[in-house]
Structure formats: structure tokens, C-alpha cells
Amino acid sequence: MDHYIAIDIGASSGRLMHSAVDNLGQISLTEIHRFKNFFTAKDGHDRWEIDHLIKEILVGLAKVKAAGIDRCYAGIDTWGVDYCLLDEEGQLLAAPIAYRDQRTKGAAAAFAEKLPLATLYEKTGIQLLEFNTVFQLFKEEREKLAQAKQLLLIPDYLGYVFTGNAVFEKTNASTTQLLNLAEKQLDEAILTVLELSEDLFAELTEPGSLLGPLQNDRFPEYQLPEVTFITVASHDTASAVVGTPGVDSDWAYISSGTWSLIGAELAEGNAGAAAYAANFTNEWGVQGTIRFLKNIMGMWLIQEVARMQEYRWSYAELAEMAAKEAPFQQFIPVNDDRFLNPANMITELQDYCRETQQKIPETPGELARCVYDNLALCYGAELKQLAAVSGRTFNKLHIVGGGSNNRLLNQLTADVCGIDVEAGPAEATAIGNLILQMVATGGFADLTAARKAIRKSFPLATFKPQPGNHAAILQAYEAFINDPKSILRKEEVR
Fold first, then answer.
1. Which of 46, 101, 236, 373 is an active site residue?
2. What ranges in 113-256 are assigned the alpha helix state H?
3. CB of 268 within 8 A of CB of 184?
4. pTM of the model
5. Which residue among 215, 300, 302, 463 is least enclosed by CB atoms within 10 Å?
6. Of 109-113, 116-120, 129-133, 488-492, where does mean pLDDT reach its minimum?
7. On the CB side of 356, how many CA atoms lie within 13 Å of its CA?
8. Active site residue 82
9. Around Cβ 287, how many Cβ atoms within 10 Å?
10. Rounded to whole angstroms, how far apart are CA atoms 394 and 385?
């Protein structure tokens, strides 16, 4: 039996998950090791503790060995857009800066003076977000760039540390906003603006490719198995979409974690005027597909609300308290930059309500209800836009990732969107990482067969829309987002 390890690292935590496939095609999933991920303030910036991640991965692989697994495959996925700069000797020039760092504030406007943002979107098809790699590089220290021999995205850097082989994996590379959507390569005009050479980047690599063996002799202090690394869909959303158990062509998805990504799997990119106006992104997927999606702030809001209350209540307890509160008491533009990394999320939510003369959420239940209501409303508004821009009709919405465990939010989403919601698997990102390894090594014939196996292997829950005036509330929310002075319209539909 072949053994597979998913090294799956999100913005707040990471884990190593073990999997195998039995004779009936049933996929197992066992957590081997879990650890925190975080950034700290160093040298004037918020920087990821990348050496901490390397150490924790090695600890996890040692646990794999201790469990009696002497040989396995492994793949690495992480969040996107952030990068490491390496010198001539292949050493890290500095710890990578986190995308929530303030250095890119105003970068998009400054970049637009050299290349219009509409042109940037037309070339790349990538959603305009100020923390995108293109804007990070625009603000990068020129001295550091001059010293750099190579740029590696976070999962590619981790793979390089363990194998000595450097790649520029496509699903993650596309998030940089450096690749031309039509030409499928680095865009010369964008590199010219950044004053960068193609030589800075490794070779574009397909997900599902062999990366190489773990160089065990470089880590003598650890008892490690023989590991063959596979280059998986290394952007965590790309792996989550791979792990989404959609079987027809009429489904959309929400990958629900720290960020919520709402989108559809398309055969071709769409960087037209409507997609630009709606700010949808065309990230590259596996087997030539496009992840046509939009970033939504996601569970970050409730994570920060919980943190600001010193985690006195679990997420399950907050949802239980929220369910007892009156619904739709506030409208909040959850994607506003003010909620990206505020000093205090509770104060920020309350200040926004105060500024727009709405009811101020005070109790833990009211704060949680405010977050969940507005996430569901945002999902509803964006699903309508997704259908309109893509020209697709969606009959099912898959919610995968950790947020799929939140039954209140799942039901609210079904109600607001007016569509059946299928929730699960919660571990879609790790599962997507694993099944791509399995496809690459012959464990499954193709992605379709693997997705059918996911449906057999993991519990899924269905939420059907419940009666109510949710369509009118959604319409009022959309009007408010476009014009906050329309808040009085909310009172008419409560």
C-alpha cells in the first residue's frame, strides 16, 4: 500500500495529514502533526517565521517515520502571493514579508502610473488586490532585488529546502499577477515595470509533477522516512478545489477558511470587461482548468472576534449564541480594507456600525451574528455576480474547508443564495493535495475518479433554502454596499 502525506499550511496553522487508499477505493485521512503559523514584526515589517515552518514539517515527518511508515509520497500547499528571495548561494536573504504587511498600501495606484490597472487585469485576469505579488514586488527594496538570484513562492521554497529542486508551480504562480493569461508565461511588460528579469524565476511546472526525493542527509538530527515529493496544486485554494466533490458541471464552490473563495471551475479564462468590473480572478487550476473566483475576507473576521475576546468561547459556542440573536441587524462590507488587519476587529465592526448609524453589536452573540449574516449576504451577492459574468447556471453550491463545519453559516448561505448547499469535506485542501499525489502515481485513473472516491469516503451534509424574505434582504444589502445611505431600505424588509 502506498502512503501519502499532505503538508498543508494555511495563514494561521499547518498540519501533516496521512492518507492511503484501500481495495474498495476508500480514502483514509489521519492527522499526524499540527502546528501554528504566524508572522511577527521584524526589521520594520510583518514577516513569516519560515524557519519555524521548516522545523515543524521535519517534526511531522519524523512522526511519520515513528508511526512505522518508512517510505511515502508528500506534497506541499500553502497560501499564495508571498515569496522568498534567495542569494547566489541559494540562501534566504530575509524572512518573507506577509501579505497583511502595510508596505503595499497605495502600491496599486503607484503601479497604475506605469501600467493601467485595466491593462494589468486584461493581461493576467487576476483580481486586483493590493497585496498581490506584483504590488509587493513593486514595493520591494531595490537593494534586495539586486542581490536576489531567485524568487520562490512559499511552497516552492519549502520544496526547495527539502529536495534542492526549484520550481514555479502554475496554480500558485498565477496568483502573483505576473503571468499572461493568454500566452501562459511571464508577461514581459509587467516585468519591465518591475525592472525584473525572467531569470529570477524557476521553470513553470505543472501540478502533479515529480519534484524529487527528500535529502535526508541535510537533516541528520531527525529520523525521517524516505520521501518522494510531488509538486501538487501548491496554492491551498487550488488544492481545495481539487478536493471538492463536484460531479457535474452545474456547481459552484466556496472554499471557506481564513479567506472565503467563491468561484467555479472553468475550461477557459475570462478577463473581459464584466469580469474586470466585478473583480473576479482567473487563477490557473489543474489539468488546464481555470479557478474563476473572488476572494472574500472569510472566517478571519470571526477568528479575530474570538481572539479579541481571548478565546473565552469556542467557534461552536459563538455560533450557538449567534443562532439565538435576531438576524440581519447590520450590513457590513466584509471585504473592505479596514477589516484586513485592524488592531481590534470588534472595535472596527462597532465603529463601522456607528459611522453608518446602524445597531452596534455588543455581546458575543451579536458580534458573531453580525459576522455570519454578512458573510452569507456577501456570498449571495457574489454568487449572483459569478453566474452573470460566467454565463453559468448553478444548481448546487459546495462549501468545503473548515468553515463547512459551521451549520448556522451553511444554512444562512443556502437561504440567502436560494440554492442547495452541500457542506464538506472540511479537509478539502489536504484531500486535494493527497488525491493529486494519488493521480500522479497511479492511485486513481484521473481527477473525476478521485472526486467520486471523495464522495464515498467523507461525510457530506446538505442544507436546503428555508422560507423567508431573504431575496429582499439580499437586494437591500446589495443596495447598501453600493450606497451606504440606502440603509433605510433595510428597515423595509426586516
1. 236
2. 117-124, 133-139, 142-147, 154-163, 170-173, 188-194, 236-242
3. no
4. 0.90
5. 215
6. 488-492
7. 23
8. no
9. 14
10. 12
